[in-house]
Amino acid sequence: MGTNFERYRVKAGTKVDLGKEPTRGDDAYGGDKDAGYARLDALRDEIAELQDRLYAEEKHKVLIVLQAMDTAGKDSTIRDVFKETNPQGVRVASFGRPTDEELAHDYLWRVHKYTPAAGHIRVFNRSHYEDVLVVRVNELVPEDRWKRRYGHIRDFERLLVDEGTTIRKFFLHISKDEQRERLQERLDIKEKHWKFESGDLRVRERWDDYMAAYADAIKETSTVDAPWYIIPSDRRWYRKLAVAEIVLETLKDLDPKYPDPPDNLHHIAIPD
Ligand code: ADP
Known about the structure:
- The protein is α/β, with parallel strands linked by helices.
- It has one domain (5-254): P-loop containing nucleotide triphosphate hydrolases (Rossmann fold, 3-Layer(aba) Sandwich), CATH 3.40.50.
- It is 44% helix and 12% strand.
- It has a 5-stranded parallel beta sheet, with helices on both faces.
- Helix 1 packs parallel to helix 10 (236-254) and helix 2 (74-82) crosses helix 10 (236-254).
- 33% of the residues are buried.
- The structure holds adenosine-5'-diphosphate (ADP).
- Adenosine-5'-diphosphate (ADP) is lined by residues 70, 95-98, 125-126, 130-131, 134-135.
């Protein structure tokens, strides 16, 4: 049987110690990878069906935020959770280093325009949280400035929620050992060479600083309506399964419905 994935939700106001949060989740399906993947297959179909309704109904907006250290699996989570959905209604926005134009504005400027429209699911591959993570660790702005951003982010997400957006945020939590293995794979396997970036090693050197930044960011911004989930991600199947289960529950709660037909369709005959 499955497990209660809601337990990975960070309750508003609780302290976060990432050193104590599991990176290896293996109690679902008795830790059986094949059973996990079979369940994931079924979840994907259910997610796709609800997404079709959501798109047709044009009522709800869904924002999924993914944050993680390098190699934790943001890309493959997006691919494998949303594989069966219709790309017309599910879009991904990836946030890399800001351009000069973006830097000339406030840090939420580039983010707001990618928030989901009615009927859409938007996945943020990295997000405005980089502005309290990489920006903090590398001291790109002074401390008093990034510290005020937690408040801005809470207010920004509150605005989105008040205007009809459902927000779920996922931190894909891997151990430093697991990251070493995955980075090593990128060096060893030819098909993975393209994923290797030497800059990732510099980020890895600052691991503890990133963990501290993530812990504060999650604690400061996990709210009732825009919660964070800390997903154990050392095992790939478990990570995808956990995210898929939570996404599915979220969509089920929204209960999207196909809209009523505009007219009594029985009276309409299609002309030859
Ligand atoms: P990914 O690592 O997500 O696959 P990239 O290799 O394009 O994607 O890396 C994106 C990089 O951009 C990351 O190193 C990230 O920390 C950085 N980045 C994202 N947002 C910001 C920001 N606001 N300020 C500075 N750097 C940022």
